[in-house]
Amino acid sequence: xxxxxxxxxxxxxxxxxxxxxxxxxxxxxxxxxxxxxxxxxxxxxxxxxxxxxxxxxxxxxxxxxxxxxxxxxxxxxxxxxxxxxxxxxxxxxxxxxxxxxxxxxxxxxxxxxxxxxxxxxxxxxxxxxxxxxxxxxxxxxxxxxxxxxxxxxxxxxxxxxxxxxxxxxxxxxxxxxxxxxxxxxxxxxxxxxxxxxxxxxxxxxxxxxxxxxxxxxxxxxxxxxxxxxxxxxxxxxxxxxxxxxxxxxxxxxxxxxxxxxxxxxxxxxxxxxxxxxxxxxxxxxxxxxxxxxxxxxxxxxxxxxxxxxxxxxxxxxxxxxxxxxxxxxxxxxxxxxxxxxxxxxxxxxxxxxxxxxxxxxxxxxxxxxxxxxxxxxxxxxxxxxxxxxxxxxxxxxxxxxx
Length: 402
Ligand SMILES: Cc1cc2nc3c(=O)[nH]c(=O)nc-3n(C[C@H](O)[C@H](O)[C@H](O)COP(=O)(O)OP(=O)(O)OC[C@H]3O[C@@H](n4cnc5c(N)ncnc54)[C@H](O)[C@@H]3O)c2cc1C
Known about the structure:
Keywords: FAD, Flavoprotein, Oxidoreductase
Oligomer: single chain
CATH superfamily of the largest domain: FAD/NAD(P)-binding domain
CATH topology of the largest domain: FAD/NAD(P)-binding domain
Strand order of the largest sheet: 3-2-1-7-19
InterPro entries: FAD/NAD-bd_sf (IPR036188), FAD/NAD-binding_dom (IPR023753), NADH-Q_oxidoreductase (IPR051169)
Structural class: alpha/beta
Strand content: 25-35%
Bound molecules: flavin-adenine dinucleotide
Protein name: FAD-dependent oxidoreductase
Low-confidence stretches: none
CATH class of the largest domain: Alpha Beta
Radius of gyration: 22 Å
Family: Belongs to the NADH dehydrogenase family.
Cofactor: FAD
């Protein structure tokens, strides 16, 4: 990759377009802006639906009426040379190298960074689209907050016993002790942790009064209940759906190679295997490591964004990108505001013996949730500061870029 040349041989601008200002896309845009955004032959543009950064890690707090900071994306980009375009991406044409915004604007790119994230999958269960709340966006979380505040008493059912379901159940039970909170899921909450850490998590839910029913399958969401496989109905005044993830259909529609969940399949350097001028990052990408395909997290998403940016800068210099390597190191789970469990993990995300609980863990979780924004600020000044993350050691040592 190098700067484009016009018909008369003069150098023209290389246009890098970053789609999605989530944890991964912001990392890419800030890195690129800080490293090359002020160059005349490179233009970096970040596109996102909202002007305020969505702190997904805090959406369960928003959903329970707690104030979270309003973090302005254009303000953060100030001084980097990267520009911000607010809008909804409606189509990507990977052959023409264009992106359509709000169906009325077209942006051209030479290199694309695709980071549109993922949301809870409501399509798998009939009635979920119509009757269940989600934490898919700040707006959705605010709608749930409004509903919970007006309920007074009654039952809130949470579908999905993964970490988002657990964090939401604990938060709702703590903020609204008069509500019955029922957590439904196939697996026991905390099943991926060590027995001791998992037991702590379940005891905390118990203390908060959350009724946990694992080993169940929700087959239908109704206006006032959820139906389980076998026909049992669990009455519900409000339902929050946290199970499964779905990504934007835009990548598949653009003809990019995607996996069975619609995520962009990447090579070792995070480029689309079908369209190497497209990098895919964060939850929207299917990134294979030595231990398997990465699952969506902020801890892994931010490094993917930084790596894509560094690779693009290398390519602009005519150098080959390096393979991406990442190993997990923790699973922090909040259990209300004063309690949490932090399970430390091996690079393949299997649990180590060590874990934290209680107030120390709650402070750790808060530090993790608060970290991204100052990290972007530091990256603006010292881009290399963003390029520090656990590479996964022997778990990810599998050779060069394919
Ligand atoms: C309650 C909760 C708690 C969590 N806790 C943790 C945790 O403790 N640790 C952890 O590692 N992970 C956690 N996660 C998961 C983490 O939030 C995600 O893995 C992370 O947000 C993925 O980052 P991303 O940049 O890929 O996507 P996102 O953060 O989802 O960002 C995608 C961006 O793209 C924008 N977008 C999407 N489609 C379009 C479009 N068509 N046009 C324009 N813009 C668009 C969205 O508005 C958004 O700004 C949690 C998630 C939730 C919901």
